[in-house]
Amino acid sequence: MVRTTPPRPLDITALFPELREHSTTATRLHPRPGAPTVTDSSVGGPLLWPADEVWPVCDDAGAHEPWGLTTLAALHRRREILATAEAREPLPGGDFLTVEERAELDAADALDLDDLIEDPIPLVPVAQLYRRDIPDYAGPDGTDLLQVLWCPVDHSDRHYSPRVFLYWRDSSAVGPLLEAPPEPPVISDMYLPVPCVVHPEQVREYQYSDLFPDDLRERLDEWDDGQGDSRPHYQSDLSLAPGWKVGGYANWSLTDPYPMDCAGCGTTMTLILTVDSGDWNGMHCSWRPSEENPTASPDIVGVQIGRGYSLYAFRCPESFDHPPATAVQ
Length: 329
Ligand SMILES: [Zn+2]
Ligand SMILES: [Zn+2]
What we know:
With about 325 residues, this protein is of the alpha+beta class. The protein has two domains: about 1-30 and about 200-329, no CATH class; about 35-70 and about 110-200, no CATH class. About 15% of the residues lie in helices and about 25% in strands. It contains five helices and 17 strands. Bound molecules: zinc ion (ZN) (2 copies). One zinc ion (ZN) binds next to strand 9.
């Protein structure tokens, strides 16, 4: 089923034509649980990875933080227990979990895994994006596949979020595939995406208002302040799409904007991928796809960035070989 962003409640460029100069496109991914294969674009799905290429690990043990650690087996089991509990009639007495289920989750919580973050940690697939599916795909000439992986524990040097790695390929040049990628012995319970197929949809975005020239920002703020609670607002309804997306702009509402300059050459970086804790912001969010039940949970991918924030991955526009950077907002 396609996913469709409802039309914006008003055309902001009719009121502020100069916004057209501060506009770009983004591809909302609309990830939904499924069974993607290596030939599909996906979130949390299997990667088209050559057998003769070593699976990457993060050996940055000094930056690893021991928060929310669990194992893949324990996390899969936890999700199974919670799904079973949600699908059944309430238990006698109104408890959500049985005594046995509660005991199993408590035992998993009690595992002491801290030592494991001292070793190199195999990376986890976050997204695999084929150029043919993603209107806002960006990558070196001759590539048609972007693979995003991360080290699935908090990094003290990455705003206490996962460290992101980007790989580009020409899928037609990939021969025999790696059959069973190594799995991390330890992960944070917030950083394992549920395998999802994607439903890419291109939308138009307008820049975060604090990044406008002063005059435009002031006039826009004045207009926004004059809007009642039930009217559309620039930041929440008219500028930036929530959820997982490729391209577009970052929403700097947590810290206010700060420069994202390439560590290799100093150039201002470009947003390439947004990982979001929810795919939209609650029942009354104007960005919720038309096809979704209004009461559906936007927590679809099973990834949480901090307290419901987003992780923004940036690339250098000068060279795809320069290192990516991330911001949490
Ligand atoms: Zn790491
Ligand atoms: Zn650079």
